# Entry
Amino acid sequence: MTDAHSPLSPAVYFVGAGPGDPDLLTVKAQRLIAQANVVVVANSLVPPAILAGVRSDAEVVRTANQTLETIVPLMIDRVQAGRSVVRLQSGDPSLYSAIHEQIAALVAVDIPFEVVPGISAFQAAAAHLGVELTVPGEVQTIILTRIGGRTQVPEREELATLAAHQASLCLYLSARHVTPAQAQLLAHYPPDTPVAVCYRLGWPDEQVVVVPLAEMAQVTEAADLTRTTLYVISPALKAIGGRFSSGDATRSRLYHPEHDHLFRPQRSRDP
# Structure
């Protein structure tokens, strides 16, 4: 636990920087960035605006051209010298952030660490589109995944297998393989299933467009989207075009007048 007014303890703080918009940083993330002696930032994925709150005397280390063989020893050295280190990760550290191996290296030499969550791109995408990804009667499951590339996925997690659920599927790190991804998705989703193609969410040059699944690859290739692209494939996106009503079939029971629970008992149960 970190106190807002006391110096940070010497440790590594893995901080989720969110998808790009500085306003989406958590209060804790802002405080840690402002207090840290050292900020180690994945600068190819975290925009410069996120660093606006860094203290003037902080050491800022940009790691786009580095490997863990240089990054981790640097963090260890700084903590052992009594300094606090913020390791800024894009999005949320629990997703595709490579903190697993960083933490293992820190634990091996007894370096303390803390993980601070951030907003993930799929959440920013849903907010941008003004939709809920779990709509009663339509979809109640969200799958976060990627297609196999240089980093393979387990066979049981192949995209075609996951697509069989027809859930809200958020596809990361797959723009370079969009054509085979589309083919695997079309094996289970209807061709007119809406897909949000989201490029550099939260950055000044962000692009978000909703297209039918059958056009996902074409749109990606026409715009030459390669890195930092998220796809949200979901029946819930039909709400954007008003393709399903807001009646009882898609209404949550949580605030329905006929639904009773501990804090809202039916009148018949009232004393």
